[in-house]
DNA sequence: ACCGTAGCACTAACGGTTAGCCTTTCGGAA
DNA sequence: TTCCGAAAGGCTAACCGTTAGTGCTACGGT
């Protein structure tokens, strides 16, 4: 599957990177709204249609790590030791993601996102997508006897934790705070007191 | 303040209603994407610019009750008896809102929303706005000793409850289920054991 | 060596949204 | 009562993201 980085794939990835890199640079230099798609395409030396072949929308240019982010969440739920409880595993991953996003180097990008309504909105719906994937991953785990609603609820709570922590004064502490609440919620949603 | 329903205000409200009504009718008849803004404006007999003076976007045409919805939530948190606990009050209001939205008469509209990506996304960000308002209302309540993060968390949970319940097979039961989790979360976020 | 397909380009257009500018009409102060 | 400022509405023209439609090129597997 992933064993064939043929020239084609490499070129495609290179084009994608070039577009995303150029776009991000321009956006950071002059502001998201002040830079048009046609301009990004020209600067990256590709056609507008090519740009949209790689990214579904202008906003998606900024969230290049979208898929990776989602995978990490899902793996945190599915790929854990059989006896490792779910919630702490989620907390650990969310913690890592928050740390990653609040790092010094990521500051300019997030500042751009936070100050651009279109990007904020896009990120919101992105999170919802991630929450749904996570919910599916949680529900897929056999022998955790929760309802679909409970799984979706916990998934949303976890994503909310990320969003809230990112905006909190002390992100790490905020993750712990929200996860204490999540832990409690998860407890009471437990497999209806197995007889 | 509200004591002057002058002719001006009435005309404005009438125009607004006429636009929203016309839009909704056309959308339901022929589908959201198949009806253009210019067409809605023409059918409502107003200029396109007038339409956008009343509604910030095409999507907003469908969510006319947006503000009312938000007010109900906020009032559920702020306008309750001094000794009435927060979470049950929220549950009651969310229950009512879910019942309202899953009513027979509202079915076509929600079916339209659920099958139109643009509307789904708009509703998501609308909910986030509502959650923020609710969080502010909760935090404003004196003597409930929670952190800002805890208030925002609970607010999001409540909004999530609405969203999840609306999509569940048994909405009312789903509200109760999620609110059992919320109640537990609210407990552990309690005012650090008041001395 | 060959063919199918995927990547990419170009042009044109569509549809939501806004800016600029003008007219009408109401509400309240003089 | 009169008059002015402001708000509502209108028209035109454009901007910008996004999407066909079409065709060319080059890579990858047979």
Automatic annotation (TrEMBL), chains A, B:
Residues 13-73 form the HTH tetR-type domain. The keyword Transcription regulation applies. PROSITE patterns: HTH_TETR_2 (PS50977). Residues 36-55 bind DNA. The keyword Transcription applies. InterPro entries: Homeodomain-like_sf, HTH-type_TetR-like_transc_reg, HTH_TetR. Keywords: DNA-binding, Transcription, Transcription regulation. It comes from the Bacteria. It holds the Pfam family TetR_N. This is TetR/AcrR family transcriptional regulator. It comes from Streptomyces pyxinae.
């Amino acid at each position: 599957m992933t064993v064939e980085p043929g020239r084609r794939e490499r070129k495609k990835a290179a084009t994608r990177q070039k577009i995303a890199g150029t776009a991000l640079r321009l956006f950071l230099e002059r502001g998201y709204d002040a830079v048009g798609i046609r301009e990004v395409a020209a600067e990256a030396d590709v056609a507008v249609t090519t740009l949209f072949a790689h990214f579904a929308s202008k906003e998606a240019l900024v969230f290049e790590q979208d898929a990776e982010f989602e995978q990490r969440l899902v793996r945190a739920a599915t790929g854990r030791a059989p006896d490792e409880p779910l919630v702490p595993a989620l907390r650990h991953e969310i913690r890592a993601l928050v740390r990653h996003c609040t790092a010094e180097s990521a500051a300019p990008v997030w500042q751009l996102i936070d100050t651009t309504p279109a990007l904020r909105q896009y990120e919101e719906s992105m999170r919802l997508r991630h929450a749904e994937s996570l919910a599916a991953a949680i529900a897929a785990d056999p022998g955790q006897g929760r309802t679909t609603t409970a799984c979706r609820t916990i998934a949303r709570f976890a994503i909310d934790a990320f969003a809230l922590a990112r905006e909190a004064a002390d992100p790490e502490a905020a993750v712990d705070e929200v996860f204490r609440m999540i832990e409690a919620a998860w407890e009471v949603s437990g497999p209806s007191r197995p007889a």
